[in-house]
Amino acid sequence: WLKVRCPPAPSRCRGGRAPPQAMAEQQQAGQGGQASKDQPELPKPELHVVDMSKAEAEFAVDVAKKGVISLFKNERRSFCEVAQYIKKEFDKNPVVGGGAWHVFVGKHFGAWVTYEAHKLIYFHIGQAGFLIFRHG
């Protein structure tokens, strides 16, 4: 069994701003600054590939939104920690049926995967991409 640990999150990204703060500022600028610090408004999810039931897809988007919001609140420090959170939620939730779920989260990534039939979703929330699938 192999466990991959998240590397320490960099404290700054290009431009000298912390990643969650930079994303929040960009989104607030696009929304006229309407988002509150307690509960930032997120852009509407952009679904690219959905090969799962509607209930599973809604669960995936809801959990991903919670993960992004946790970045804004500095409860998590990196996309890797968000991916870890999403995987744990999928592994324990009866809506998605448990199993071996795999999660990719980030602004830039490529993937070529094999997955169980009707157990994959790929979408973006703002600049953050999410690939979630079950295999094994």
UniProtKB/TrEMBL annotation:
Gene Ontology process terms (BP): microtubule-based process
Subcellular location per the Swiss-Prot or TrEMBL entry: Cytoplasm, Cytoskeleton
Residue numbers spanned by region Disordered: 1-46
CC annotations in GO: cytoplasmic dynein complex; microtubule
InterPro entries linked: DLC_sf, Dynein_light_chain_typ-1/2
PANTHER family to which the protein is assigned, alphabetical: DYNEIN LIGHT CHAIN
Protein family membership: Belongs to the dynein light chain family.
Name recorded for this polypeptide: Dynein light chain
Lineage: Eukaryota, Sar, Alveolata, Dinophyceae, Gonyaulacales
